[in-house]
Amino acid sequence: QVQLVESGGGLVQPGGSLRLSCAASGTVFSINTMGWYRRAPGKQRELVAAITSSGSTNYADSVKGRFTISRDNAKNTVYLKMNSLKPEDTAVYYCNADGYGLGLRPFSSWGQGTQVTVSS
Q1: How far is CA 96 from CA 5, 35, 42, 111, in A?
Q2: Average pLDDT estimate for 52-58
Q3: Using an 8 Å Cβ cutoff, are 67 and 17 in contact?
Q4: Which of 97, 10, 94, 102 is nearest to 45 (CA)?
Q5: Are the CB atoms for 11 and 37 separated by under 8 Å?
Q6: Continuous segment of H or E residues that includes residue 70
Q7: Measured between alpha carbons, how far is 85 from 70 in angstroms, rounded to an integer?
Q8: CA-CA distance, 41 to 44, in Å (whole number)?
Q9: Cα angle at 39 between 35 and 41, to 5 degrees?
Q10: DSSP 3-state of 83
Q11: What is the mean pLDDT of residues 13-21?
C-alpha cells in the first residue's frame, strides 16, 4: 500500500508564500502523475496542478504564474511552491499520486490534506 504524507501548510498573509511537500512511502515501483488538489469551504475539490513522471505540468487557470509544481523522482516527492497567495487560495490541499506498487499493482493514493489559510 502506498501512502502519501503532506506537510507545509499553515497561515500566511496575502501576498505571502508557502511550499507544500508530499512524500510517497511504501512499496513503490513507479509513479506516473502526481498532483495537488484543493477543496475550499462550500466548494468542490478542484485540480490545482499536476506533473507527470517526465516533467510535463498542468495548472488551473487561477494559479498560473503564481504556483509551481515540481517533483523529485528519486525521493518519490512532489512539491507545490505557492507565491502571491490570495485569500481565495484558502483551502485544504490534497496530494494525489498514481502508479504501480507491490507486485506491479496499480494504485491511486491520496494524502490526508493540509490546511492553507491566507488571511491578514
Answers
A1: 10, 5, 21, 6
A2: 96
A3: no
A4: 94
A5: no
A6: strand 67-72
A7: 18
A8: 8
A9: 170
A10: coil
A11: 98
> Which is nearest to 32 in space by CA: 105, 103, 110, 97?
97
Average pLDDT over residues 34-39: 98
* CB-CB contact of 14 with 118 (8 Å): yes
What kind and span of H or E run contains 48? strand 46-51
Query: Which amino acid is present at 72?
Result: D
Looking from the CA of 56 toward its CB, the CA atoms found within 13 Å total: 4
Quick check: 75 pLDDT over 90? yes
For the chain, give the number of residues: 120
- The alpha carbon of residue 1 and the mean position of all alpha carbons in its chain are separated, in whole angstroms, by 19
Please name the residue that has the C-alpha cell 488551473. 60
C-alpha cell at 4: 502519501
Using pLDDT thresholds of 50, 70 and 90, give the confidence band for residue 1.
confident
Q: Do residues 20 and 82 touch, judged by C-beta distance below 8 A? A: yes
